[in-house]
Each structure stands twice: as C-alpha cells, then as structure tokens.
Design goal:
CATH class of the largest domain: Mainly Alpha
Number of domains: 2
Oligomer: single chain
Radius of gyration: 19 Å
Structural class: mainly alpha
Largest sheet: none
Number of strands: 0
Strand content: under 5%
CATH architecture of the largest domain: Orthogonal Bundle
Distance between the termini: 46 Å
Shape: flat
Order of helices and strands: HHHHHHHHH
Amino acid sequence: MGTDTEDGLVGQIFVTHRRALVGLAMRILGCPCRAEDVVQDAYIKLCDARSACPVRHPASYVMQVVRNLALDGYRRQQIENRVFTVEDEAIDMPDRAASPEAQVTARQMIGGMLERLKTLPERTRTVFEMYYFQDCTQREIAQSLGVSTTLVNFMMQDARQALTPWISGTTEEPA
C-alpha cells in the first residue's frame, strides 16, 4: 500500500467498511472514542506504508491492521492501568491522601519493576521503553534499531513475561 491507486483503494475500504472497522476496535477496546482513534491511526499507517508486495485481500488486511492496533492499545492500557492505579487513586481523592501503606506499596512495585527492567538485555529494555514510555510503534522501533518487526514483537513478549509479576499486580517473583 502506498501508491496513489492503493491509497484510493485504502480510502474506499475505510469508507465502505467504516462501521465494521470501528465495531471491531470497539469490541476490543470498549470505548467508541478510542475505537475511532484506532481506525484513524490504521488509515494513516496504511496510507503512509510502502509495501513491496501487493496485498491480495485488501479489506481483510485493513481489518487485521485495525485489530492489531486495537489489541496493542488494549494491552498498553491494561499495563498503564495496573502500574498507575495506586498513584491515580491518590490524585483523584484530593481530600484524602493515599495511605502510607499504599504509597510504600506503589513505590515498591514501581521500584521492583524498574529493577527488573535493568536485568533485561539492553535491546529488549530499549524496545520496552520505546513502546511504553516513548509511545513508538513496533514498526518505528524496528526501523530505529535496524531489526525486523517480528524480532521487536518477540522482545516485547520477553519484556512482558519478565515483568508479569508487576503487571499483574502481584510482586512475588515466579518460582
């Protein structure tokens, strides 16, 4: 995708299948605004993409891109929710400061997560930080590091697996 003809086809697919695309993203994300954003992001990505090989089923390809972006957004939101819940609760309740226990727990959780990040291979840590802290896409990370998007995906899985105790809210190390 990326030529004028392909961009026109992409645009036509987005116009024709907009309701289905937004519905797909909505089922994953649970938020109509975020679903609209994902569909818009997919459109921009596909218009900007320069594909070396033609896509046989463009409508299916577009649906898969929207699905993948929605899943990435869902995963990112789940991690952010788990990491920042205690901190956000303190912000949302100005009349009542977080208890000292909650503050200590939050600090320990974040500290443990940062320590665990330091144990990851440098490139895996860089991929995780670029994705979650710098809001880069996996494609952007791959281009920046000169590796394939598949390798970036595997490194993301390794980082998530290493950080599972903190992401899931249990700070106990796996056996």
